[in-house]
Specification:
Largest sheet: 6 strands, mixed
Strand content: 35-45%
CATH class of the largest domain: Alpha Beta
Distance between the termini: 50 Å
Oligomer: single chain
Length: about 400
């Protein structure tokens, strides 16, 4: 049995996965690296270190990684990162044995196409990639959330491909290395105050919590996590002047899929079953903070969240539905079974003329970015579009142009 994932800007190989995918092996190590500060002339990030912590937390809670095998390197320079990589590799060599083992390394912070920017110091991407490649774990996964991080996904032997196929077979475990980056080698990666984190990491986290489980088998594989994160990152960045395209690279041998998290048996979590494939905004009912922005890949998708009260907004084409949800440990709440308060989107009204049956117009948006990395000057851009809104349908056409000086 096989399924094809739509084409994207990625790098891929032929992969195969078992029908009954297992969670991360017991011998799994996680290293998360986060640094809010980059070079002295770079604006300090707000959420890079927080995102690293959240990735560690979700792999602990949803991936069953032991707490003593999760290493956090927050706000440290290249020396601290190198030391952590060496220590983790030594631990793997001492304890992994000959059975299945895995290493997951995540970085969030400033970077350019060649190196990580760590509080005024730099660590070459090649050094990070080399340390992960040489680690003695059977499977190594490198996740990089940084500007121009696509450069790190240039893996020996890889060639660009329009898509890749995942075939489902019962075979042995995979071995090798996989890399996912938040943007292409020429693109910026973005933080969002509304999401309270980076766009890429926010969607990766929600994917690992279950939103990426396309086939409904209760586990999230690496390819599912990438597919979900890619689609949602492109969709979210489409609201801004510049698009952001995550990249993906494999150098994996063997015939087993890489499984990152399991959501079906989270006894300490509540599971929210969503409805159709609309956009869902999930907020903490008490704090009011946005917890997740999710557009599930299928109807009845489930996302595993900490047990508490949430407000959920289901954003349909002409109205949104508001739900009050109470999640309890080990329980599943079906959103469709709850009462909803409907709010229809406001109609445009002409002063003194009542409701208009047709509204249309042109719009022009302009913007300019200052210097973000060394050697990159002012980047002006413009978006031009036309909108037609009727009682029965709405159409918007827009074009985006950016220049680099």
């Amino acid at each position: 049995m096989a399924r094809r994932i739509p084409g994207w800007l990625a790098i891929g190989l032929l992969l195969v996965a078992p029908r009954a995918a297992q969670a991360l092996p017991p011998e799994t190590w996680v290293l998360v690296i986060g640094h809010n500060a980059g070079d002295p002339d770079e604006v300090e990030l707000l959420y890079a270190e927080q995102d690293a912590q959240l990735i560690a937390d979700v792999l602990r809670s949803h991936g069953d990684v032991r707490a003593d095998r999760i290493t956090r390197v927050l706000g440290e320079g290249p020396a601290g990162v190198r030391a952590a990589l060496e220590k983790v590799s030594a631990d793997i060599a001492a304890h992994a044995g000959d059975g299945p083992s895995a290493l997951v390394v995540y970085y969030s912070g400033h970077a350019d196409a060649e190196s990580l920017h760590l509080g005024g110091e730099r660590l070459p991407f090649a050094a990070l990639r080399g340390a992960v490649e040489s680690a003695p774990a059977k499977v190594r996964v490198l996740l990089v959330d940084a500007c121009r991080s696509g450069g790190v996904s240039r893996v020996k032997g890889m060639k660009p491909a329009p898509d890749f196929r995942v075939e489902v077979l019962d075979q042995t475990a995979a071995e090798g290395m996989a890399i996912i980056t938040s943007s292409a080698a020429s693109e910026n990666s973005m933080e969002s105050d509304r999401l309270r984190g980076s766009v890429f990491s926010h969607h990766l986290l929600n994917g690992l919590r279950g939103a990426a489980d396309r086939n409904g088998d209760g586990v999230v594989t690496l390819s599912e996590a990438y597919e979900h994160t890619y689609n949602e990152t492109v969709r979210s960045s489409g609201r801004t002047l510049t698009l952001q395209h995550p990249t993906y690279a494999w150098d994996v041998k063997g015939r087993g899929e890489v499984v990152l998290t399991r959501t079906a048996s989270r006894r300490n979590m509540g599971r929210l079953r969503l409805g159709d494939e609309w956009l869902y905004l999930i907020t903490d009912a008490q704090a009011g903070a946005l917890v997740a922005e999710v557009k599930p890949p299928r109807a009845n998708a489930e996302i595993a969240l900490p047990p508490k009260r949430y407000r959920v907004q289901e954003r349909r084409s002409r109205a949104h539905l508001n739900y009050e949800v109470a999640l309890r440990p080990g329980e599943v709440v079906d959103l469709r079974a709850l009462p909803a308060r409907e709010e229809r989107y406001d109609r445009l009204v002409r002063k003194g003329g009542g409701e208009r049956s047709v509204v249309h117009g042109l719009f022009v948006l302009g913007a300019a970015h200052g210097e973000i990395v060394d050697g990159e000057g002012v980047m002006p851009g413009v978006v031009v579009g036309y909108v037609l809104d009727t009682r029965w349908f709405s159409v918007m056409v827009r074009g985006r142009l950016g220049l680099i000086e």
